[in-house]
Specification:
Blueprint: H1 2-11, H2 21-45, E1 49-54, H3 64-76, E2 80-85, H4 88-94, E3 101-102, E4 105-106, H5 110-131, E5 147-148, E6 153-157, E7 160-161, E8 164-165, E9 170-175, H6 177-185, E10 189-192, E11 195-197, E12 203-205, H7 208-219, E13 223-228, E14 242-244, H8 245-253, H9 258-272, E15 277-282, H10 288-294, E16 301-304, E17 309-313, H11 319-331, H12 340-346, E18 350-355, E19 358-367, E20 373-381, H13 390-404, E21 409-414, H14 418-423, E22 427-428, H15 436-439, E23 449-454
Parallel strand pairs: 1-2, 1-13, 2-10, 5-10, 13-15, 14-16, 20-21
Antiparallel strand pairs: 3-4, 6-9, 7-8, 11-12, 15-16, 17-18, 18-19, 19-20, 21-23, 22-23
The protein binds coenzyme A.
Coenzyme A binds at residues 329, 334, 377-381, 386-392, 414, 416-417, 419-420.
Length: 457
C-alpha cells in the first residue's frame, strides 16, 4: 500500500515541478496517517451489508464516476453491496407528455410505465458498464466485479390517494431475501431497479428510496446510505451529524422541498424498521461516501434508532452514576483512584452513555489551555453492556471533540486495555505524549503504558 501510494504521488508530479522529495515525503506521511485512521473502519466494514440508493440526479453528473469507483473499491474491501437506483430525470426527459406527481410520487400511466421500463434497462446497463471498469490508474485496474440483478421485489399497487389513481405506481410488498443473500454470499454486487412485479404478473414503478429502505430492513442490512441535496440542519442552521429517528421525523416536518422531506422521512422509517445505521450523504461531494465510512469526522448525518440510549455531556447529577460504574475498576486497580471531589471538579470533561436513566458507559477528555495534546481517561463500559461498540462510539465522539478544541494528538494511559486502543489506531508512546498538565500526575508506580494517536485535520 505504501509503495503504491508513493508511486502514485510521484507519478502525479507535473513535469519540471519544483515540489521535491520533502513535499513528496509530507504527502506520503499524510497518506499513511489517513490509512492508519481508516484501518479500524476497513476492519469494521468487512463482511457488512450496505444498501445504497443512487438517485437519478447523479447520473450524468461528475459525481457518478468517482462514486462507481468507490463502490468497486468497497466491494473489493469485502463490503456486501446492494445498489438501488432512481430514474426520475431520465423518465421525465423521455416522456412525451408532462410528468405528473402527487406528494413527490410519480403517477405512472401506461405511457410512463413503458418509459420507466426502457429507462431502467438503459440505466442498468450504464451502471453495469461503469462498475465493470475496475479502478483505472490504480493497482486494482481490471479487478473484476460481478453485478447481478433480478426479480427480487414483489410489489402491489400504490392505489388511490387523495382521489388520485396512481395506476402503475406500486409499493414494496415483499423482498426476496434468500435469493439476494445467496448472490451477496457468492460475492456479487446486487443492482435493484425501481421496478417490482405483482403475484398477478403486473409490473410496477417503485420509488428507488423505498426499494432501498425495504430491502435494507428485510435483509437486516448493517447500513443504508441515501443521498440528499441538503443535509439536515438544526435550529442554528448547523449541520446535524447524528440524529435519532424521532429527531429526523421532526426535522422532516420543516422541509419545504417535498423530495428532501420524503428522503428524511424514509431515513427515519428505515431506522425504525431496525436498520442500525442510516447515513444521509450530500450528493454534491464526490468524496462523501469514503469520508463517511472511513474517517472519524464523517461527511453526512447518521440516524440511529436509540430510543433508550443517549450520548451526552455529563452534568453534576451524573457523579453518583459514574462512581457506581468506575468504582469496581478503581478497587481492582484497572483505573486510577479518583475521589468524589475530584470527579465533581472534572465532571465537565466527562461524556456518558445513558440508557433508561442508567449510566452504562463513560469517558473523559482532558486538554490544557493552549495545549495541542489531549488525553482520554476513564473510558469504561458496564460489563453488562460491553462488546456492542459503546466504547468505540465514545472514543469517536471524544476524538471529534478533541479536534474541535484544537488537539493534534490524543493519548491514553492504560494498564490492561492496550490492545483495544491499538485496534482503534493508537500506537505505543511515552509520557511526553500526554498533555502538559497530566504529565505531573503520571505515576511511575502504576507503570501505565502511554498510547497515542495523531489527529488529522
Ligand atoms: C475496554 C472497554 C472500555 C471496552 O468497552 P466496550 O463497550 O465493550 O467496547 P467495544 O464494544 O467498542 O469493543 C469491544 C471489543 O473490544 C474487545 N476488548 C474489550 N476489552 C479489551 C481489552 N482489554 N483488550 C483488547 N480488546 C478488548 C472486545 O473483545 C471486543 O472485541 P470483539 O468486537 O472482536 O468481540 C471495556 O472493556 C472496559 O470498560 N474495560 C475496563 C476499563 C478500562 O480498562 N478502560 C480503559 C482504560 S481508561
Amino acid at each position: 500500500m505504501s509503495q503504491s501510494t508513493t508511486n502514485q504521488s510521484a507519478g502525479n508530479q507535473p513535469a519540471g515541478s519544483s515540489e521535491g522529495p520533502a513535499k513528496r515525503a509530507i504527502d506520503a506521511n499524510e497518506a499513511i496517517s489517513w490509512f492508519r485512521e481508516a484501518s479500524p473502519y476497513i476492519n469494521e466494514h468487512r463482511g457488512k451489508t450496505v444498501v445504497l440508493c443512487v438517485p437519478d440526479r447523479l447520473f450524468g453528473s461528475d459525481l457518478l464516476a468517482p462514486l462507481t469507483h468507490d463502490l468497486t473499491l468497497l466491494s473489493h474491501l469485502g463490503v456486501r453491496l446492494l445498489i438501488s437506483f432512481g430514474l426520475r430525470s431520465d423518465v421525465d426527459a423521455r416522456l412525451k407528455s408532462n410528468p405528473s406527481f402527487h406528494n413527490g410520487r410519480r403517477i405512472t400511466d401506461d405511457d410512463a410505465l413503458q418509459v420507466v421500463l426502457e429507462s431502467a434497462g438503459k440505466v442498468r446497463n450504464d451502471l453495469e458498464a461503469r462498475l465493470s471498469m475496475g479502478l483505472p490508474n490504480t493497482p486494482m485496474a481490471g479487478a473484476h466485479l460481478s453485478v447481478c440483478s433480478g426479480n427480487f421485489i414483489t410489489a402491489r399497487p400504490y392505489g388511490v390517494h387523495d382521489g388520485i389513481d396512481f395506476q402503475h405506481t406500486g409499493s414494496v410488498r415483499e423482498v426476496q431475501t434468500a435469493a439476494i443473500q445467496s448472490l451477496l454470499e457468492a460475492g456479487h454486487l446486487v443492482l435493484l431497479p425501481p421496478i417490482g412485479h405483482s403475484l398477478t404478473g403486473e409490473v410496477f414503478n417503485l420509488p428507488a428510496e423505498e426499494v432501498a429502505v425495504e430491502t435494507a430492513a428485510a435483509l437486516g442490512a448493517d447500513k443504508l446510505v441515501l443521498f440528499v441535496p441538503e443535509l439536515p440542519k438544526d435550529d442554528e442552521q448547523a449541520w446535524v451529524r447524528e440524529a435519532s429517528a424521532e429527531q429526523m421525523k421532526t426535522i422532516a416536518q420543516d422541509q419545504t422541498d417535498e423530495s428532501v422531506k420524503l428522503t428524511y422521512q424514509r431515513a427515519a422509517a428505515a431506522s425504525e424498521l431496525g436498520v442500525p445505521r442510516v447515513h444521509l450523504l450530500p450528493d454534491t461531494d464526490p468524496n462523501a461516501l469514503l469520508r463517511e465510512l472511513f474517517t472519524v469526522d464523517g461527511a453526512g448525518t447518521l440516524i440511529t434508532h436509540e430510543r433508550f440510549e443517549t450520548l451526552r455531556e455529563a452534568s453534576i447529577q451524573d457523579v453518583g452514576g459514574i462512581i457506581e460504574l468506575i468504582e469496581p475498576l478503581q478497587q481492582n486497580g484497572t483505573l486510577v483512584q479518583r475521589s468524589r471531589e475530584q470527579l465533581e471538579l472534572d465532571i465537565k470533561q466527562f461524556t456518558v452513555l445513558e440508557r433508561e436513566g442508567k449510566i452504562v458507559a463513560c469517558a473523559a477528555l482532558f486538554i490544557g489551555p493552549n495545549d495541542t495534546a489531549a488525553e482520554i481517561a476513564c473510558l469504561v463500559t458496564h460489563p453488562d453492556y460491553q462488546g456492542q461498540g459503546r466504547a468505540a462510539k465514545l472514543l469517536r465522539h471524544l476524538t471529534k471533540r478533541a479536534k474541535r478544541l484544537g488537539a493534534q494528538s490524543l493519548s491514553i494511559r492504560t494498564t490492561r486495555t492496550a490492545h483495544w486502543f491499538v485496534e482503534q489506531g493508537f500506537t505505543q508512546s511515552d509520557v511526553n505524549a500526554l498533555p502538559a498538565n497530566s504529565r505531573e500526575s503520571y505515576s511511575e508506580s502504576r507503570n501505565s503504558k502511554v498510547f497515542e494517536k495523531k489527529l488529522l485535520n
